[in-house]
Amino acid sequence: MNGRDQMLVYSVPAWPEDEFTVAVRVLIEEMPKGRIGQIFSAWAAGMDDPLRLVVDNGKLFARIEAGGGFATPGVPIDTGHWHHVAAVKHGPKLTLFLDGQPAGSSAAPEFTTTSTRDCALGGNPHFTGNEFLAAIFADFGLWARALTNDELTQLARRQ
């Protein structure tokens, strides 16, 4: 994706309400300047955002907007190297993983309802502003369950 106007959009018939995992391998080519860049976005509208994986000022965050804002602490991520990024929502907890290792967690709504019917890599499918990310993506997956730490470690090890 070029970071200016490209993203990959996927249809999602129904977003999981209580637990899920999103994982993707990403090589960031250029950090966004003065704005966020979306690795993954399922944002549908304000306060209707079941998950986004964003790069903000050189740090990676997992964020949910549902009745309030929830975000993991930011963890540094660099350009020019492949990284395996994942977020696991399990009950009232959201955990961010970087390269197979837990990188931070936050509280999250135990159950969420959303109008989301699609998601994107490299941008936000429903926001008219620029949240694009110059990156290459591989091995994207969305599971309607919380993968275990061991499963995420195995995914991160695959080349």
Coarse morphology: globular
E-strand count: 12
The rounded distance between the terminal residues' Cα atoms is 20 Å
Element string (H = helix, E = strand): EEEEEEEEEEEEH
Rounded average pLDDT: 94
Q: Give the count of helical stretches.
A: 1
Low-confidence stretches: none
Specify the helix fraction band. under 10%
Computed structural class: mainly beta
Largest sheet: 7 strands, antiparallel
Question: Can you describe what's shown?
Answer:
- With 159 residues, the protein is mainly beta.
- The protein has one helix and twelve strands, in the order E-E-E-E-E-E-E-E-E-E-E-E-H.
- It has one helix at 149-157, and strands spanning 8-11, 19-30, 37-41, 49-56, 59-65, 69-71, 75-76, 82-90, 93-98, 101-107, 118-121, 134-143.
- The strands form two sheets. Strands 1, 3, 4, 5, 6, 7 and 11 form a seven-stranded antiparallel beta sheet that branches. A five-stranded antiparallel beta sheet has the order 10-9-8-2-12.
- The longest helix is centred in the last third of the chain and has 9 residues, at 149-157.
- The radius of gyration is 14 Å and the shape is globular.
- The two termini are 20 Å apart.
- The model has no long low-confidence stretch (mean pLDDT 94).
